Amino acid sequence: MITEAEINYLSQLKEKTDAQTAGQILIAQKFIDGMESITKIQVIKSFFQVTFKGYLA
Q1: Rounded to the nearest 5 degrees, what angle is found at the Cα of 18, between the Cα atoms of 5 and 29?
Q2: Hey, which of 17, 26, 35, 54 has its CA 20 to 30 A from 44?
Q3: pLDDT tens, position by position, for the chain (57 residues)?
Q4: What gap in Å lies between CA 19 and CA 16, rounded to an integer?
């Protein structure tokens, strides 16, 4: 579920870039935000891909 704030943020990004780049920026931000939680739990590290490039594929 996309929040209203994410919709507004994505809309602003689309004004400055194309839709694909805007989506990649949003995914990158979510990846960065989630890394703190992911790296704290040792078991999760073995199940999640911890490289950003894998999330864009």
Answers
A1: 45
A2: 26
A3: 568 888 888 888 888 998 888 888 888 888 888 877 777 776 655 555 555 565 555
A4: 9
